[in-house]
Every structure is written in C-alpha cells, then in structure tokens.
C-alpha cells in the first residue's frame, strides 16, 4: 500500500483530477447536448407524426443512434483513436477525450430529447399550423416551451451519464477522477484515495440532481 500525506492527496491528486473531470463534464455535456438536440429535432420532424414525415430518413437516423449506443464506451474509445489523433493530434488528455465523449453522448442526448419532444400535445401543433407558423417557429416557440420541464430532466440524466463516461475515459488516458482512482487508489492499494474519490463523485451526482430538480420546478 502506498500511503500519501493528505496535503499531497488534495494538492497533487484530487484537485487536478477534479479540474480535468470538470472540464470533460462541462465541454462534453455542451457538445453532446448541442448535437443531441439537433439529432432529436431531426428525429422529431421526420418521425411518423412529425412536421415533415420522412420514414427513410427517420429509420437511418434511428439506426445510427441505436448502433452507436450499442457500443461499449471503452471499445468506442479504442475504435476511434485514429480519428481522435487526426483531430486533436493526440489520443490522451482531457481534450482528446472530448471526441469519443461527444460521439458516445450525442445519441443518448438525442434519444432522450426526442422522447421529451414527443410529449407535446398535438393540438398545440395543429393550432400553430392554423395560424400559419413555420416548422421552425413551431419547434422553438411551441414544442420546446411546452416540453421544457421534460427536456430539463433529460438534460440532467445526460449530464450524469456524461460524468460516468468521463470517469471511464479517465482510465483510458484522459486523466481526471477515473485515472486517479485507478492509479493512486486501486493500483496503489490505497483505499483512502479510492473511496474519497468515490464519495466526491457521489456528492457531484447529488449536486447535479439537486440543481436539475430546482430547474424542473421553476420550469413547471
């Protein structure tokens, strides 16, 4: 067992790990949420009861979502290493992890957002059509406001999902909490470091959920 002084644990292990994980969580959630929302709108519009139904396009997009979600994240990271190196000139570090994090989280966000958008009352869409609203106006002035609480809940689940993905990415060279728990905790037989990181992750998840619950109540 490697026993580190607590000041070393905080200054050299925990703080750098939390900063790296925080960056992956923030930027990964923003990228995954953005592309996921675009994907969700495309699925919603081209779906069977969408604004512009297109079964072929919907089936292709839906199959793409399902195929990416079926990949274990570790396998996905390894599979796209050549692309990651081409885009970021490296395959390690939190910046390089953003590509696989975005690829893995976009289908998750997309499917969650699609399910939220489908909750809109069809009568609202029909009323908007009768007033001559365009599809763009219907989506952003009718559908999104009407389903905002559900979209917030989906976003919270997506961010928590991203936190788990970023931890896995850490064990594959991205750094952060996952790498620290593996190297300084498990491999060093230091239960203090490992369980302290687990506790911090628990607190982060609870904090994200609490913020999400408050936003949900405000939007309801």
Automatic annotation (TrEMBL):
Stated family: Belongs to the binding-protein-dependent transport system permease family.
One Gene Ontology cellular component: plasma membrane
Residue ranges of every copy of the ABC transmembrane type-1 domain listed in the record: 18-212
Subcellular location: Cell membrane
Membrane topology: Multi-pass membrane protein
PANTHER family given in the database record: ABC TRANSPORTER PERMEASE, D-METHIONINE TRANSPORT SYSTEM PERMEASE PROTEIN METI-RELATED
Protein name (record): D-methionine transport system permease protein MetI
Gene that specifies this protein: metI
Pfam families: BPD_transp_1 (PF00528)
Protein's GO biological process: D-methionine transmembrane transport
Keywords for the protein's UniProt record, in alphabetical order: Cell membrane, Membrane, Transmembrane, Transmembrane helix, Transport
Membrane-spanning intervals of the chain: 24-46, 58-80, 92-110, 138-160, 166-186, 193-212
Upper classification of the organism: Bacteria, Pseudomonadati, Thermodesulfobacteriota, Desulfovibrionia, Desulfovibrionales
Top-level taxon of the source organism: Bacteria
Principal subcellular localization: membrane
Matching CDD domains: TM_PBP2 (cd06261)
């Amino acid at each position: 067992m490697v026993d580190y002084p607590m000041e070393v644990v905080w200054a050299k292990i925990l703080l750098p790990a939390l900063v790296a994980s925080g960056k992956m969580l923030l930027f990964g959630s923003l990228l995954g949420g953005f592309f996921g929302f675009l994907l969700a709108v495309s699925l919603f519009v081209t779906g069977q009861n969408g604004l512009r139904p297109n079964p072929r396009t919907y089936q292709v997009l839906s199959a793409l979502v399902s195929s990416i979600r079926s990949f274990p994240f570790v396998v996905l990271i390894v599979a796209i290493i050549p692309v990651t190196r081409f885009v970021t000139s490296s395959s390690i570090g939190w910046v390089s992890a953003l590509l696989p994090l975005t690829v893995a989280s976009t289908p998750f966000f997309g499917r969650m957002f699609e399910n939220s958008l489908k909750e809109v009352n069809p009568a609202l869409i029909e009323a908007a059509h009768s007033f001559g609203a365009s599809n763009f106006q219907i989506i952003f002035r009718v559908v999104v406001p009407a389903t905002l609480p559900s979209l917030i809940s989906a976003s919270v689940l997506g961010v928590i999902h991203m936190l788990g993905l970023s931890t896995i990415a850490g064990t594959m060279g991205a750094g952060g909490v996952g790498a620290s728990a593996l190297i300084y905790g498990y491999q060093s037989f230091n239960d203090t470091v490992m369980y302290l990181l687990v506790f911090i992750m628990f607190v982060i998840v609870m904090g994200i959920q609490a913020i999400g619950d408050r936003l949900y109540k405000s939007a309801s």
